[in-house]
Amino acid sequence: MGYEKIEFEKDTRFLVTGAAGFIGSNLVEALLNMGYHVRGLDNFSTGKQENIALFADNQLFEFIEGDICDLETCHKACQGIDYVLHQAALGSIPRSIKYPVMYEEVNIGGTVKMMQAAFDAKVKRFIYASSSSVYGDSPRLPKVEGEEGKVLAPYALTKVVNEEYGRLYFQLYDLETIGFRYFNVFGKRQDPYSTYAAVIPIFVKKLLAEEQPIINGDGNHSRDFTYIDNVIEANLKACLAPQKACGKAYNIAFGENTSLNSLYQKLCQLLQKDIEPIYGLERVGDVKHSLADISQAKIMIGYAPSYDLGSGLERAIDWYKEYLA
User: Which residues are catalytic?
Assistant: First the structure.
């Protein structure tokens, strides 16, 4: 694993927001395994109690049940913290189209409150989750920072605004911020039961149940799938990157794209299934193709992803088998 050799001072303290979620809980686990103090913050709107229960007996872990939309809670969470890894947000493009006001309040309002609380608490650095959806209708491949199109959904717009606040908090207030445009992250603890679940857990759940998954569109849509350990590496390296890396957002992916048809075939092989998918309508707001140029993350934060789609799936598939059993 690329992140295990990253070292901080022994008494370094981290705050992970969205700690009960998919990415957040994996960050918490990695940091605890490395021997660092971690404070988690989550309101369980999408996160799961079972993800936090994994760390209940670890003396290095403390947890605050609270909402990033409450400034007092944000201040409490940031006290005595060195690095904030801000993952808390409402995900899902389709859901954001249904509930734009809620996404505005949580993803933008909550993130600004967290940045302000981090500034007030004099944290060393604020790392936050953005999204590949900020590229919107830009046809260019690969996706390059600074060449974005018009966003296609409220969720994507909230991430664009988050990035602008990240830039401003660095330029105006000297809060060292770094944003990450995640590309289709997958791995253990990614919820396969959510109405808005990501494509990999949906496919796996259906295949294990001997059911036909639905592929939206013709299956030629492509994505740059990113294994969770690559995301962990990026977050930890960003904490120690040179100051010149701050105030910007970077693509975090593996740098290869795979069609949904090809992904489905890989999963069928891993699970030893021979089930034909059902092809349905394309989803509103979906981008046809996604592929990241990760050169800026490599240059500015030393990002060097260790796991491609195949090796990531091999590591994740056993967790899905056990969890869904």
Answer: 155
Q: Give Cα 73 distance to the centre of its chain.
A: 22
Q: How many residues does the chain have?
A: 325
Residues 112, 165: Cα–Cα separation, whole Å: 7
Question: How far, in Å, CA of 161 to CA of 321, rounded?
Answer: 38
User: At which residue do the structure tokens 């949904």 appear?
Assistant: 260
Cβ contacts of residue 51 below 8 Å, gap of 6+? 19, 20, 21, 24, 25, 189
pLDDT in tens, 16-40: 999 999 999 999 999 999 999 999 9
pLDDT tens digits, 47-73: 999 999 999 999 999 999 999 999 999
Q: Let me know: does 39 contact 15? Beta carbons within 8 Å.
A: yes
Collect all residues with Cβ–Cβ distance below 8 Å to 192 and sequence separation of at least 6: 201, 202, 204, 205, 320, 323, 324
DSSP collapsed to 3 states, the chain: CCCCCCCCCCCCEEEEECCCCHHHHHHHHHHHHCCCEEEEEECCCCCCHHHHHCCCCCCCEEEEECCCCCHHHHHHHHCCCCEEEECCCCCCHHHHHHCHHHHHHHHHHHHHHHHHHHHHCCCCEEEEEEEHHHHCCCCCCCECCCCCCCCCCHHHHHHHHHHHHHHHHHHHHCCCEEEEEECCEECCCCCCCCCCCCHHHHHHHHHHCCCCCEEECCCCCEECCEEHHHHHHHHHHHHHCCHHHCCEEEEECCCCCEEHHHHHHHHHHHHCCCCCCEEECCCCCCCCECCECCHHHHHHHCCCCCCCHHHHHHHHHHHHHHHHC
